Amino acid sequence: MERELSAGQVFCLPVTVYGYDVDHNCEVTPQAYLRFMDRGRFEAIEKICLSLGLNDSWLTKYIINVYKISARFLAAGHMGEELNIISSLHKTSSHRAAFLQQVKNLNGDLLAEAIVELLFLNMERELVPVPEELPASRETLPHFEPMLVPVPFGKSEHYSFKMPVRVYYENTDAQGITYHVAYFNFCERAFAESLKKAIDSSRLSLWLANNPLKIKRQINRYMNASHIGDKLEVLVGYRPFNETTFILDQRIIDAAGTVCTDMLTEVQFIKNGFLMPIPEAVAALCKVRD
C-alpha cells in the first residue's frame, strides 16, 4: 500500500572520516564532502521509496541526473571524526527536484551545505516528470551563490591554462558515464598544474604552506555527459573578486569542443585564522573578462 511523503522530510546518514577523505592537514576535502552528500542522497532516496511502499526504487526506475551543485564549505571536519549528512528532497517544478544537504559534526556545527539540483530520466535517457509521489515543496530553498555570480568565460582565449585529461574506469559510474565528483578532481589537478606553471614547480609545496588556500563556495553546472575512454580538456581562468578572494573559472570540454561542465570556485587565502590578500603570483593570473 502506497503512503504519502511529507514535503521536505529530513533523512540523516552517519559517516566516518577516513584517510582518503582528508588533505595533508587531516582536514576533510571539498570533494570528500561531495562524496558524503552523494551517499546521503542515495540512502535518502531508498528510505523515501521504502516509506512510500513502492515496489520499484526510483534508483532502478530512473536515471537520476545531477545537473547543478551550489555548495558552501564553512568549517573543517577531521580524520577519524564522525559526521552526519542531513538531506531533504524538494520538488521545485514538474521536471525538477533539489536536495538540500548539510554536513554537521556531532556537536551540531555546520561544516558544509549544498543545493543539489536533479533531473529524472527514463532508461532511454529522456527527460521525464519528477515522480508523482514527491509532493511540491512549500519551502524557499536557501541561496548559496555569491552576491555577484560571474558568467563563465565565453571565449577560449580568456582561459590562461589548458590541460588534457582522460576518463578512466575510476572516474565513471555503473553506466560508464563520468561521475560528477570526477570533474571536480580533474579541475583540481588543472588548478594545481596552472599554479606550478605560474610558480616554480619545485617551490609549489612551500608556496602553498606559506599561502594556504581555502575553497569557500562553488557552483558546478553539468551540461553534457562524457564517457569512459573520452579525452577531455580542462580550461582554467582566474579573475579577481575582491582584495582577498578570487574566482577560479574552469570549463571541461570534450574532443569536439562540447562543454561537459562549468565550474566556478570562490577561493580565499587564510593563514592562522586570518584572511590574506591575494598573493602576487595569483593576482598576476587574474583576468577581467572583456
Number of domains: 2
State the low-pLDDT regions, or none: 1-5
CATH architecture of the largest domain: Roll
Overall 3D shape: globular
CATH topology of the largest domain: Thiol Ester Dehydrase, Chain A
Helix content: 10-25%
How many DSSP E strands? 12
What name goes with the CATH superfamily of the largest domain? Hotdog Thioesterase
The amount of beta strand, in percent, is 35-45%
Q: What is the H/E order?
A: EHHEEEEEEHHEEEEEH
Global mean pLDDT: 87
Largest sheet: 12 strands, antiparallel
What is the rounded distance between the termini? Answer: 59 Å
Strand pairing plus helix content: what structural class? Answer: alpha+beta
What's the gyration radius in Å?
20 Å
CATH class of the largest domain: Alpha Beta
Distinct helical segment count: 5
Please specify the SSE layout and strand pairing.
Elements: E1 10-16, H1 30-51, H2 58-61, E2 63-73, E3 82-93, E4 96-105, E5 110-121, E6 127-128, E7 161-166, H3 180-198, H4 204-210, E8 213-222, E9 231-242, E10 245-254, E11 259-271, E12 274-276, H5 280-285
Antiparallel strand pairs: 1-3, 2-5, 2-8, 3-4, 4-5, 5-6, 7-9, 8-11, 9-10, 10-11, 11-12
In a few lines, what is going on in this structure?
This protein is α+β, with helices and mostly antiparallel strands.
Structure description:
This protein has five helices and twelve strands. It is an alpha+beta fold and 290 residues long. The protein has two domains: 1-138, Roll (Thiol Ester Dehydrase, Chain A), CATH 3.10.129; 153-290, Hotdog Thioesterase (Thiol Ester Dehydrase, Chain A, Roll), CATH 3.10.129. Strands 1, 2, 3, 4, 5, 6, 7, 8, 9, 10, 11 and 12 form a twelve-stranded antiparallel β-sheet that branches. Strand 11 and strand 12 (274-276) form a beta hairpin.
